[in-house]
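Pipeline run #58 for the internal structure catalog. This entry was flagged by the ingest filter as a single-chain record with no existing model, so it goes straight to prediction. Upstream metadata was stripped on purpose; only the residue string is passed forward. Reviewer on rotation: M.T. Logging verbosity set to normal.
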Amino acid sequence: MQAVWPSPHEWPEVARRMCNDSLRLLQRRMIDEIGRLKLELDKHDERVNAVRDWQKKSLDCLVELRSYMSYKMDPQIMKTYEFIQEQGTIPEKIYEVLYHRAAKADTLLGEINKCSTSLLSCSSEAYTEINYQLIVSLTQAVDGYFEQKPELPAMPEGDPLPFSSEEIWNGIVMAGSHRTMFLPFLKNLPPLSPCSSPGLSVRSLRLKLNYTSSFGSFGTDMGQFSEPAGICVGKDGLIAVTDTKNNRVQVFDSIGCLKLTFGFSDVPGGGLMYPNCVAYCRLTDRYIVTERTPVHQAQIFSADGRFIKKFGQDLLQFPRGVCVDKDGTIIIIECKVMRINLFDRDGNLIRRFTNPSVLNFPISVCCNDNQQIFIADNRRHCIVVFDYNGRFLRTMCDNGSISFPIAIAITSVGEIFVADNHQSFNMSFFTQNGEPLRVYESRNRHLHCLAAVVQNDSRVILSTKDYRIYTYDCK
């Protein structure tokens, strides 16, 4: 069929139609592209969440690796240090072996000379079988002496360490993390630099953190502070803070919303005066609050802030740290007289003891389920441990791992948490035997750290003299 071409007068209309078709095609293409781009843009939040999730997992992995290094490097370095020190005793050991062998040889020679002199001084008729047996015995003794060749300790030679620094480093990385993201870096890891000190301090491997949240300000209104001197975690994760100069305790939820205030002087019998420390008893669902000068006592309040009773008026002097064990036993330490007091759940004295030879300025206290009391001593820069009968058990962290501790607590997994305020705010975690686990340092400079507590196993809550409460995530 032959094509019909438009006549000349139809060309403008044909051109217009062609242009319209082309424009509609272009419009459709751009509309489809914009739709596709909008769909991709709608995935922005999904991408952000995915990247944040990846970052969190990656940082958790990095923290895991760093924590493992903190935990493993000290024992490894100390083991190597002990090995090096042991090598220094090798010459003495060699000398001792050779000295005893020379002494034994000298004794045998004396017996031989004695027998020889005896034989020379007697006639041939005087030779008896006894003399013959003596010579046989001496011969056997000399033969035995030369057969017993002592093994001398080998002198150190070759590499200064029993294993290379690269082996230590790669071993720690491989053992500390099974994440494949670290594997590409193993072959490029730098060797460890030579150690000039006997051990590697966990403090030198501390991670630096920023606080995750904060709340509070200076003032007398609800939710404000004049001196947040004490802090504890109560039921359902509520945070109780002693507002010392406002003579009250304020209770907040985990994000800093005020839930309860108690201790006002207009409450019959239950007005607080300069409360400084607070603890929560899970068994009785009560708060125990200590009060400093001039009252020197403690008070018990219900979880809803209702006054229950006072105790310790005639017993306590400068009460400071307070904690409660799983059976409701209340433990209060007196900082200036260095005394530990144990009360039952109702505030009746069970026993009290002191030990000035090991205590200097006890500032905070916690206890475990085995009736062991852990006391942070601010001036001895260590943790002192007693049992409930007052028997001194041990000191911990007295190797420079903490300085000027301000708080101690036990985490939900049984680790010892210690906060110190030397140069910066430091958060250290140890086993109950004092072995270091991990250390964190705040990147934020706080005016003055007053108290700290750990929630669950890793959330640290800090009160400071800038009238604020800060939280840190030490995962």
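catalog note: The CA atoms of residues 292 and 318 lie 6 Å apart.
catalog note: The longest strand covers residues 275-281.
status: ready for reviewer M.T.
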